[in-house]
Amino acid sequence: MVWKPNVTVAAVVEQQGRFLLVEETTADGVRLNQPAGHLEEGESLLAAVVRETREETCRAFTPQAMLGIYRLPLPTLTYLRVAVIGSVGEADPALTLDDGILRTVWLTADELRAQPERLRSPLVLRCVEDYLAGQRFPLSVLVEGA
């Protein structure tokens, strides 16, 4: 068997001290996550985070900076999460939320810290903490191709 990590992207969006999250149905119940999902074949990382944010929030996402690359090893698989900081526009009423997404919510870091059991993974809060600590990298660190 060939091991390979699952590559995901996540959008970190903050407005007036609140972070954009989605409430989603998972095998473990309803959880909170940044707009996030899997990189698809042939897709760039930035295109993936723009697409996933649109699908899960009905909002256009504009990438502004790279937050980090996070490794989450689990017993049966490993995730590599590419987190991108950006901004969103208003929700497009012509779009519908992706399957499994119940709603979008805006929460403060303290609200997230108070309910760790509701987070999809520990990476949700880690991304918020890194954002609040001022961690930023230029988007140019994401090299696509040779």
Instruction: Report, as a whole number of angstroms, the end-to-end distance.
Output: 28 Å
What series of H and E elements makes up the topology?
A: EEEEEHEEEHH
Just give the CATH class: Alpha Beta
Whole-number radius of gyration?
15 Å
Q: Please, how many helices? A: 3
Given as residue ranges, the uncertain stretches (5+ residues, pLDDT < 50) are: none
**Strand residue content:** 35-45%
Instruction: Indicate the overall shape.
Output: globular
> What percent of residues adopt helix (DSSP H or I)?
10-25%
Q: Give the structural class.
A: alpha+beta
Beta strands, count: 8
Write down the domain tally.
1
* CATH fold-type name: Nucleoside Triphosphate Pyrophosphohydrolase
The CATH architecture is Alpha-Beta Complex
Largest sheet descriptor = 4 strands, mixed
Q: Which sequence of strands runs across the widest sheet? A: 5-1-7-6
Determine the CATH superfamily.
Nucleoside Triphosphate Pyrophosphohydrolase
